[in-house]
């Protein structure tokens, strides 16, 4: 340095810097270190920054005034620096200046040119605010302050100085200050950027550097959230880079590479075995599978998200290093307090250095958290997207697609990854922090530290044991959770059956049994958690105790003074966090590894083979061809269809008939590619439209369901409605075709749903139509209309290839070919006439069952042309005499008139009449347009989020669930534990003061003993308090879940009609997870942090009482900021919870309709819908570190004031007290306390959802049925659905109930159960009980026996007997498991007809005095139907039977028939009398061909 600066300018002068009252730095130091430091930083960062700018081009920014000024000032700075250089060269004539005067201006000038170049390059690359240049200008100003002060001091002391260089320096200083100020302003967004086009862009994208590091950009949202509760529309759009559109493909690309790699490896191993040992290889390969390598989902995640996450890791490393600066500053502060006669500015400088270090640490740490959190968010988005995309190509019957299990993958498992990423860096950061802490401790206390290390090493096996056991419990708990969610999903899907059979109790017991197992595991986990908490709380103390004890006892010369004790203690406190976090992160890692395996295993499963059906071959005369086809649902299962050979000519209509369970629907599935093809070839030419047996309806408008993503062609659309007999329904529905249809088509009758499904197929204008029994859900009149106008030879589909599965043999003479199936094989095939000529089993069947009906129908049709006995309008009203009343009853039509919505893109509620069209019937359109708009509510209300503060009652509710006494005890225990901790540290402070009086050796044993006793007492109290808290939380989890289950299963049916299942499942999955796992951990952390913060304030105030003056305003600011933030974050949490349900609802809907979605090729559209729902949910996830930065700043102020007051009170304070006070200030985490409070507020919103109103007690069922002036409505404010009903039915009567749509048929039967209706007047006589049989067959996963008799109330003999009556005896006895045959979720391993027969058997088993049948045999062939009708007549001879019927022939021999019309009794008499009256019933019978 002497050569650089010259001999008369030394590089360092200690006396000038440290031992003067007006300290200064030497000129050489100023000209070298202070001048070069910013330049070195910029030159070092520029290569990486240039590379970053090259790769990230955000667009072009127009040159603004700010940019022009920055550039101009940059060029001026270059001129100033070079003017300085030329002036020095000019001075050589007079004297020879040292080299530093040439080098420094040259370096500065070159750096200013680089900075100016970067200013322009950033503008061209669309950078609105530069962090690199901000740091450079900030460092430049910081380093120039000392020379600036020096030059002012020189001028004031009138020391001669060079006027030119003084002027250039002042110019230089002024310009860099201007550059720093200009750097704080943002540039405009780049041209054509998304920020310009987005209506509500997130300000984070355009935030400046300062705004980004302090999270100032979020302030606007915090203010808005404080003023009024936030709503979904207030949320900013999701950043483009975080959207599903970007994140999911990123992960799937890496996952596909992993799959390909695993496949290549397996093939390589296969061939290597075969080539190495040809003969033995074949034997080996035949005896075992070729070795396979599992694709690694972890590797895919790391490759996709690792690079971004590494930026956060870099911040963490920087923060770790800075963490150890403050203990060194504390050492210097205590040293300063001990020394007499040192300048006061030392102390103040140390206090401010501690403050600035703490602020820097806060900013860096929060940047690390931000990067980690965004990574976690991206991982969650990508995992949910990947799972959704995986579900679409999985077959519906796949064992994998258990809704509960997959919902858990999407909610709990994806969430685990998100939570883990926040602290994942602790895996490497914790060991680094531990090593650095031990290094500084070694310097402080020497080899005695080894004793502390030994304690830490001894704790490792304990933590390892806890982590291992936690992992095992985690796996077990997830299995129970899956089981519980799966069962809940089934219960909610079949809730109506449960309620009608009063089976709630049995199923509640089943759920609670699983829940009990789950809670047992939770209890074990709680004990481990308490052990773990004790270990990490006591670890730093045990390390400190052993270290101090060894230090003072090994050598008499070792004195434990304040400097050694409190610097060591602050290092031990730094150790506390890594020692605490490491086991937790390992435990989270363990949990995530369980989730990882589950996700990996799910994503690795085989999908449907898209090539199993050939769709691309050359066109032939045959549209559908199957040659030697053999199909199964699963490769492991035996084939379901054997030797299928069929060739369907282009444009022909093929009918597929056969008994229940013979494989008709399986054949359709095979043609769609939904089954595994084990042999043969299948080809389908052209596009496909599919109508499933159970209509799949989306939660959207009726029009959207029909268009199904296609553009609206008004003329075509009208003709489709006409063909599907939907035009009259538009008059019934309040919003016409814009009526919202609830989840699963909840507010349409079965017939309407099936017709919407048919309309969807017709509108799609496909080449091949696969129709799986579409006419079963509609009555005979509508079926005839649909066949004539749509399916038949003269229907809208003539010329198209149609394959129709049907039980309605009335239409068979009109089809081109008939295929008869028997037990999975084709038994006969040919035209109607050919099959009759063959005189086989089919011909015999036809003769027995249908010849008369067909003749009668032909006659009826002939007569109808000649005579018109009543006006046309009376008949036209019968277009939908749907007696198929499914999950929702007939009265719903009236309900709908009131509450269905007609919404366009979710905007305000408005009615919309259907547009006039030239191709529609003018008369109908006029009627439509005359309909007045009416105010209507949404059927399925959007889930609402509570607003405002979490009410005290909610906290009390949770405290009650824990137990009020227990809650108080827990708080007391935490208080005692904090008191023990303070006592130990105060005792240590007193112990260190012994050093000053040279009495260190006198009381060593006593000092160590008391210190140990206090510490051990703290450890024991921690253990007890944690265990008590965990056990209290387990108790609360049990109570809250019990309340939720019992409440939900006793809620009226109308709740389920208007609430999507996804929303209820959300309560049972995510919210119960919060109560079980998240809330206890948060409460534990909150209590711990609260008492630590409280004890800190107590210690500092007692050490330096003047601190109390500062405490009050700081606490005030703290409470203000915290409340400001919590108001916003609480609402964000609620909005997040509300926007989560649609993800699961849509997901559930997708699983149910996956075969339809695949058939129409709509996968990509559904993926986009799912992505948008996930993105909407992610918008609420502002894990804002806004609060953290502000609250920790308050904590940093506490450090500053504690140190400042220690300096001012230097004379009166002992070093021990200063050490105690400042070391306590350094360890406080107010931010963690505030976050816990906000978390508590947010998490407590979860149990809040569970508090709900209890439904009224069950109405007792009894009596010969008598209605007297009975009127009923769904709820207050709605129209009556039944009006003044008066009928009397005596025991044993058989009553048929018929009527047009909206007549109130199902409402009347539901009144008997008091399921959801409250009558104005009702009277029943003593009766045993009712047995319902709803139209939609609902089965639960479990054994067949459980489905028939969940309470085990009947013997096996009785069960077999009813199976015989229901004609299921043969099927069940052929099964290996017989009565213990496992039914899949929803009974999907049985055909639709078999499911209906099981439900019928269930009704027969109960042998009730009243039987209610709601179209019990719609999906059953005529032969079986006939047998069942005779069973009902014989087995229920003495019972009262109410039947809502489609096939009028089934009720023609009933005692009486009740005809309902608009909620009133139109006709009520014997069938014979009603026919003779020639009223409504006669018209219906005529349509059905019965008269």
From TrEMBL:
MF annotations from Gene Ontology: ABC-type glutathione S-conjugate transporter activity; ATP binding; ATP hydrolysis activity
GO cellular component: plasma membrane
TM ranges: 33-52, 72-89, 101-119, 131-149, 169-185, 345-365, 423-442, 448-468, 961-988, 1008-1030, 1106-1126, 1184-1207
PROSITE patterns: ABC_TM1F, ABC_TRANSPORTER_1, ABC_TRANSPORTER_2
Start and end residues of each ABC transmembrane type-1 domain: 310-591, 968-1228
All residue ranges annotated as the ABC transporter domain in the record: 624-848, 1265-1487
Subcellular location(s) of the protein: Cell membrane
Keywords recorded for this protein, A-Z: ATP-binding, Cell membrane, Membrane, Nucleotide-binding, Repeat, Translocase, Transmembrane, Transmembrane helix, Transport
Membrane topology: Multi-pass membrane protein
Coiled coil regions, renumbered to chain: none
One Pfam assignment: TMD0_ABC
Catalytic activity: leukotriene C4(in) + ATP + H2O = leukotriene C4(out) + ADP + phosphate + H(+)
Entry keyword annotation includes Repeat: yes
EC number: 7.6.2.3
Alphabetized InterPro entries for the sequence: AAA+_ATPase, ABC1_TM_dom, ABC1_TM_sf, ABC_transporter-like_ATP-bd, ABC_transporter-like_CS, ABC_transporter_C-like, MRP, P-loop_NTPase
Family in the record: Belongs to the ABC transporter superfamily. ABCC family. Conjugate transporter (TC 3.A.1.208) subfamily.
Name of protein: ABC-type glutathione-S-conjugate transporter
Species for this entry: Neogobius melanostomus
Upper lineage: Eukaryota, Metazoa, Chordata, Craniata, Vertebrata
